[in-house]
Amino acid sequence: MQRPATLQLADGTSCAGASFGADRKVAGEVVFCTGLTGYVETLTDPSYRGQILVLTYPLQGNYGVPDGEDARRAMESGRIQVLGLVVSRHCTGPSHHASRSTLGEWLRREGVPAIEGVDTRSLTKHLRAYGTMAGTLDPGTLPLGAAADRVDGDFVKAVAPCETTRHAGSGPLRILVVDTGCKENIVRSLVSRGASVIRAPYHAAWESHLADVDGILLTNGPGDPAELGALSARIRAVLERGIPTFGICLGHQLLAIAAGARTYKLKFGHRSQNQPVLETSTQRAYVTSQNHGYAVDHASLGSDWEPWFVNLNDGTNEGIRHKFRPFRSVQFHPEAAAGPQDTAYLFDDFLHMVGEVKAVRAS
Amino acid sequence: MNRNLHSLRTERPQRVLLLGSGALKIGQAGEFDYSGSQALKALREDGVKTVLINPNIATVQTSEELADKVYFLPVTPQFVEMVIAKERIDAILLSFGGQTALNCGLDLEASGVLARYGVRVLGTPVASIRAGEDRKIFAQKMGEIGVKVARSIAANSVDEAIHAAHAIGLPVILRGGFSLGGQGSAIVRGEDELRMRVERAFVGNPQVLVEECLSGWKEVEYEVVRDGADNCITVCNMENVDPMGIHTGESIVVAPSQTLSDADYQMLRNLSIRIVRHLGIVGECNVQWALDPHSSEYRVIEMNPRLSRSSALASKATGYPLAYVAAKIALGYDLPMLTNAVTKTTSAFFEPALDYIVCKAPRWDFDKFAGADKRIGTEMKSVGEVMAIGRSFGEVIQKALRMLETGADGLDPEAFAFPDLERELREPSPRRIFAVAKAFAEGMTVDRVHELTAIDRFFLREIEQVVRMRADLAAKGGGLDAITRDEMLAAKRSGFSDRAIARSVKAGERDVRERRRALGVRPRLAQIDTLAAEYPADTNYLYWTYWASNHDVAPSGRRKVLVLGSGCYRIGSSVEFDWSSVGAVLAARGLGLETIMLNCNPETVSTDYDMCDRLVFDEISLESVLELCDAEQPDGTIVSMGGQTPNNLALKLHDAGVRILGTPAASIDRAEDRRKFSALCDELGIDQPQWFEATSQETLARSVEEMGGFPVVVRPSYVLSGAAMRIAHSAPELSEYLRSATTLSPEHPVVISKFESHAREMEFDAVARDGKIVLWCVAEHIEYAGVHSGDATLVLPPQELNVETIRRVRMVGAKLAEALQVTGPFNVQLLCRDNDVKVIECNLRASRSLPFVSKVLGRDFIRAATRMMLGAEPEAAMNADTLFDLGFVAVKAPQFSFGRLSGADPVLGIEMASTGEVACMGDDADEALLKAMLATGFRFPQKGVLLSLGPMGDKYRFADDARALARTGLALYATAGTAEVLRAEGIECQVAGKSEQGTDGADGPDALDLMRSRAVDFVINIPREFDERGRPDGYRIRRAAIDMNIPLVTDFCVARKLVRALVRRGIADLHPRPLGEYRGRAHGR
What is the structure's pLDDT at A16? Predict the structure, then answer.
């Protein structure tokens, strides 16, 4: 008889279930996401690199997995980024016009182990209470004592692209995307608004493109921003040149550090598609998609900077902007995918700002 | 509670009028008690004075605690204007009382009444409401923002509509503008039915819309909230399991959507918000979508600019208090200023994350309506709904189907027989979901079932898995002991009840329960916390699931009581039992006890998370209650407040060791079991109509003969609202019925009793402690005995009973209370002729008439009953003799929904048919009756009255009334036989032809033509005595009156009382007074 699949947490907690992914044992940080839809987008989000993801919503895989053009639209990178997947119930008979395979088939194809039959609410509560922690996912199909694959080390490096790529837009503006694990939809959001994009890995000499671009976008990515000190220093240096800059998620944290602020680990990370944020100057509120465990400390911002957005639930920082210069960033994901697209207007605002600065410089 | 980020957006109103929705009817039910109650709470918190107009006396919102003043008046422009003037109202809320309140508000605005009195409409502005309600404006507005609507052409005449249908191409949908619950909408597939359908659609509608048919597309709804600062959230989306083509109120619905990808979900969410912003909604609304299953094509179907059934469902499905928040927004709060009432720490500006799935299922009661078309479609016909919460589709659909209490234990393929399975799948009736199960049991493929039903394959595959598991369980050898823990867990997680497993493995329910517990398979109480555990939440909103590994909450150490709610609303069990349940919870809390509420009906106030200490939104079944008692260890359980559903569990719970509070379970059984009850009556010397128990066909004739002959009443034990009860007039009819009835209730014998004609009927409601009566009341029926008490018109205080009758009734009540050791509420139905009193039945629980009695007398019977059950002392203010001190008269009248049930014969009988009720007060019975009738849709006749009095005696007895009617200047028309008698009595009238007989001697116009031309605007049609179905021509006239929305009275006593009241009082003689003002007139207080 097949042994049950298990998820073993570092604190000794163990959850039994059944395997529906690849025959591979993995070890990594266990995190959760409470979104109702969007497993294709979420699983391919580079920010989840090296993590075992718990999807709290109990029915997963209902609308299957697309391929071809549909897949290119839905996926946030070229592959599944999560190390392992934990769900309550996996649907083996999905139904959607774009569905070409089941979630389980996709996971197996990409070599990602997965377990179902786990009380994901209880597990989410546990992770929320004791913090995200290391865990081992054993599909129960391997010989006893098999070693777990561990993806340690530099996650950002692992998800950033190797080469610089160019994406042509129909308009005059050119944006440099400094890629620390960029979600595809950030690039799509820029290009669809007419911007041309130079997408460079953060470890490349991206400064060499600065003369050719009108704006800079610092992307999302996995891990602790404080570990990327060299990158924040490079960003600080570039800010001096006054090029309009927009940061998202990890990019927001890096910009804040570059501006002299401090980041810290949140007791409860934000990992959901229903995070309310308030734009402090207008008192307008938006529902946002979020995935981060670290936050920017408002109080440590220099006097030239101001908080832009705050989280309505816990008051944590959700965005900063420079009082006089065209630098700003948000903790949440205006590109959504998955999740609500209410703040997509920020791309318009950013490009508008880039255009204005460009016009002033030209005159 | 409120985060004072900045001040309110609008000036705070002083005296706000809230319009209620009136009587429960099909398409507009208990959900508006929930929304109105929450709104009143929200206003009261802000110190705003509230005035409520709602004639629905059984609601929680009309209880004294919620509004400052309550008017039991029709929600019509005329009465609302009177109240506005009298109360110096400065602001009005239109969106909490369903379509009734909204339409009334639009009328008041259009006629300039609101402007004249300086009344501000709070929340969504009237122009936005109109844009949502008028389909033409709506389509135009959608064009402005590039949102696709179904192709639609407005037609103002039959010919225009037919032309439009051809232009769009069949099939098309016909809809009336300004309709509630899809009334008058239909899919037309063929040329042959086009004209007939179009003609019907124009009845009561000046305009009909002919629309592109999107049958088979996915149907998805979004609940959107927008505040005055343009902040928008979608609180919930929902997906219909039954796709487009079946009204959303008739559909099985899940939340959140299950088959939408993130792209689909966000596309419709974005569009919903775009619409709501463009139309300028301020508060809550609902947007309905059709989504092509083969592409990303969509159409917006409609936008409801108000709280709706869907918003009540969304509220319960997510824990987000939509109505409360909408009321706060109407007062000028912005969403970010408000706190999430569930977590109490996070913001109200957020979108709930669910970590469970919710399933709503509708309940129909077609069996109550002879002749009704039992197919479901684009018109709403259901009378109630339930909501199940769990973590797999199998778990929730099976739970939901059990909650409906239609006799099916979940997705049982054998629950009903289907002579033509494919037809049932193609042309759905309420039983289609079981036909789907049956199809899979017979080996039909998912693709074939999909072809026939258009139900998404996701749902079909889930159903197929459940059906397969049921078969596997049954096929498994070795019985119960062979079931492993894994198998048991898998079955429970797929939603099988202990009882269903017991049936499959041929064991007892108790054996399965013991085996399951021995295997360690137990359900767990999981929280609904709105944030899927992402933040800590101290919420009391719970459900059972077999998917959880541990309870989210631990029982408190406090003294506590479990109250079982009403379950599904249905004909005969409705909002009155929710009022009772809420009353019991409040009374228990008042005594310092912790309260746990168990209920599964999303239309209720009892399931508001802030009513009780713990809310378990789940099944009211033996399994669920026993598990709850085990997990929470309540000190006692109250079964007498939620109507028949919990009452039926009393004995089983008692036998399983549950402590039932109040009247002993054995007494409940003694009152419910006809035989035991009859023996008791004999013992106590209480008279009852003669009866016997039918044992064989052979002795039947002699037994009936001995009893005094036909007609007789036939009924099984444990009846609810007369289901399966019936009057038999002859021996063949009786034997025919007995053959069919035995399949209805095999566990209980059939009882046959003498039907007493022309007897008066009374309701005795009381509260007792240890067998001694503490509070009591007698109300009389206007109708003779034989009309179900739920359909009867009640008068309080009694107008025609003499003191001796009342004294005897009181004695009967006292004897029964003593003998049954009643502690708590009870109700006795009696009939009398002269002073001879007979008992019809006795219910040892709260009754339908209790809210009426309590509110009219100003004595809360539920509060008293709960205190008695919990051993508290009676409150000093309670005296039992208030009946004679009333300074006014109150009348409770039934609300029928025949207009919704095409084909149903609108007559009253021993089977209950009404869907709701109202009660109004007046200086005398005439005024109270007229108000009550107006509140149920009656209108004063202006032109002519059509009389068709079946029984010969009635023709003569009505003569004086007909004469009085004629004197008021109304034209009298009568069918041939009636006219003959009236003319013989010297009353002038025209003969109206009975259509199908052609010109059979009729000297006047055709009856149906008279109605069509509105020459007749009031129809009195009394079916021939003892003929439940009425004569065929009677049926045609009655049905035509319903279809043409002309007031119809079919009961002789009601007709006579109403005509006398009409003659004596005009509409100007009806005065608006709040209940408090009437009560202030009580004598001797």
Answer: 95
